[in-house]
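Figure-free illustration: sequence to structure, shown twice.
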Amino acid sequence: MTIRQKTDPLDELFRSQQEEINKYKWIESEKAGRDIGWERAAEEWMRNCFPKWKHHRWQELIREADRKAQSRN
């Protein structure tokens, strides 16, 4: 028997956002030749990347909701 766990959409968004900040931190730290730190990475990511990321994630969630609604019909 397979048990499917429902994931909380907010948890998934938070996890995804943290993952993106970690990627940003790694890339920018490599460019700087040193660790820029989580706080700086998070602030810069929120300022420079968050609006486009949010739009992209929102569109993904809408498509997923539409697919689920269509599969129920």
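We now fold a second protein in the same way, so the two outputs can be compared directly.
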Amino acid sequence: MDSTHNDRDHRRRRTRAELTQVDRTLKELRAEVATLEAHRAKLYAAFEA
């Protein structure tokens, strides 16, 4: 029997690929947040000085 786009294995592969992409995006966003927080801290320090 040929595989179809609705079979369980294909759905699992698609879901795994989507989860991988979401994880990658979250990692990038966390890095961006860390950079922004560091910049914010520098701005606050300059403001308080």
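Summary for the second example: The chain is about 85% helix and 0% strand.
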